[in-house]
Amino acid sequence: MLDGILIGLSTAFSFSNLLMVIGGCLIGTFIGMLPGLGPMSIISIMIPVAISIGDPSAALILLAGVYYGAIFGGSTSSILINAPGVASTVATSFDGYPLARQGKAGKALTVAAISSFCGGSIGAILLMIFAPALASVALLFHSAEYFALMVVGLSAIAAFAGTGQVVKALLMTVLGLIMATVGEGALFNMPRFTMGIMDLQSGFGFITLAMAMFALPEALYLVLDPGRSKTEGGSNEIKDLRITRAEAKSIAPVIGRQSIQGFLIGVLPGAGATIASFLGYAVERNIAPKEEQKEFGKGAIKGLAAPESANNAACTGSFVPLLTLGIPGSGTTAILLGALIALNVSPGPRLMVDEPEIFWAVIISMYVGNLILLVLNLPLIPYIAKVLAVPRNYLIPFIFFFTLMGAYIGQNNATELLILVGLGICATVLRFADYPLAPLLIGFILGSMLEDNFSRSMQLYDGLGFLMERPMTIGLLGLAALLVILPSYRARRARLRQRGVADGD
Amino acid sequence: MALDRWIALVILMISLAYGYTAFFTMDEGLPPFMKFNAIWPSTFPKGLSVMAVICALIILLSPQKADAGPKAGDIDYRRLLDYKLGQATALLAMMVIYALALRPVGFLISTVAFLVISAMILGERKLHILIPIAVLAAGVVWYLVQQVLGIYLRPLPFFMGTGG
What we know:
The structure holds 2 protein chains of 2 kinds.
Chain A: H1 2-12, H2 15-32, H3 39-53, H4 56-81, H5 90-101, H6 105-138, H7 143-161, H8 166-180, E1 183-184, E2 191-192, H9 206-224, H10 245-267, H11 272-287, H12 290-295, H13 301-317, H14 319-325, H15 331-342, H16 349-354, H17 356-384, H18 392-411, H19 415-432, H20 438-461, H21 466-469, H22 471-503
Antiparallel strand pairs in A: 1-2
Chain B: H1 3-25, H2 43-61, H3 85-105, H4 107-121, H5 127-148
């Protein structure tokens, strides 16, 4: 591990990679602050830039910096104008905005920055401890277990993403898998489902799909509902950034607890930073003394520290399944996985052995990123906050333009832009009907790997025999079935109970 | 019928067409040696089509729930006309026009036109600010993409040279 850390230090602290972290954090903070643009949209837009860098370590460091920056920027807009740029910072606004309204915006931003820093750093330490252990276990896996593990990951994502409507999420996952089969796959070297269209020979572009699923619907929502981008009404004055010793003492245990809890939630596939932040807030409110409980929602600094440390730790935690198993735990890490594949890097247990400089550089750059967010961004906050004043009439055309450019640069093909618009309209309609979009993208990204492992197992066992002969595979597939069946059963039981109450039972 | 069921119906149709291809037409052109393999190019798609059909049918046939309306902060598609639908449609049309014009008209002119017209669609009228910003942005992005990232972008119309 020490060797790995040294490799990571030398890679992450190279001049160009330091620039990547700083640049990524600043870009992420700026764009993350814009209401309506989440980390998935921002990372989608940044991927063509990252891929064109060519060096996988630098690209991943840049994208991880953008990810952290976006979460930090989301907190800033939550606190200053009660408009969370990111879903995982919604809980931040519960107490952050009331604090800003009381004229304590500076204090709120400091608490958020310190909590984020601690959450991210504790998460990175836990990642350093857990990831190598998990990777060494995963090295025992064969293609059959990988296939089963991916099915578990996809089921978990469907179960979490579609809370209350697992079937919708499952349908989206399968649709993503179906889209992954379009084009000429590496496995059979023959075109499938291209309908004779030349541009579909290489399949759907991952960047185009990511943009169409996240960036374009967000931008269209901003157009349709101008209220989403309104920035009036808040207090943008930031004066005193200091917090007292007593305040620091009171939030320290909250940060410690929520960093660990957030990290563990982040490790679970499908859970992610949003669930971690809400759960962190709820837990701290419940365990707080009665007197303090009344303060939650009115400007309690504990209520601000809890979601902020939890969401950053969860972001770090979501890198565990990505780096060790090659399975993305969230939509954002799915996009990062796609970027890695585009850079010819295969995340998974072999990553630590074959390309330790990438693995460790990412972990070390997480510390650096968190430190930069604290040291660089905090004093810059009053200036960065000015981005909130960009008029909607200028902001929206630029979001559309960068979405188009991202798809164009990714494929260097104008037809890709038409596919982007078509898929973007479909994604917006799906969002209207509450179909979750992250499972579709994750299904698409995992599709070829899933088929590859399935086919290899079929060839090795000359059929479906691997399902019976490998106990770990059966166990994992059983777990996947449970993950899908249990939430649906619970939802059905809750519905029946509700109907019973309504009928007067 | 609610929108989510219409969507499930469309996906069902797509899955049926996908399944028909996987089960009936895909294997026709398969080389004989591949037919001895345990796995064919159509094996995985066959399973996917069955799963997609089952999921779509569950959504279509499950009892209709009471409509809870849109979530807070979400758009209510039943009242779509209350939103800025015209602006959204016009911007989508602009994106299509931009995609079609990018190669023949060149990056610089089509980008400036896209940014200016899109902002005007949204209600911007201060052209003396808008046009310089659009020209500057198009120029900076072209320079970054072409010169820094090394991705070819024809800057001017086709009859004015390649700009490479």
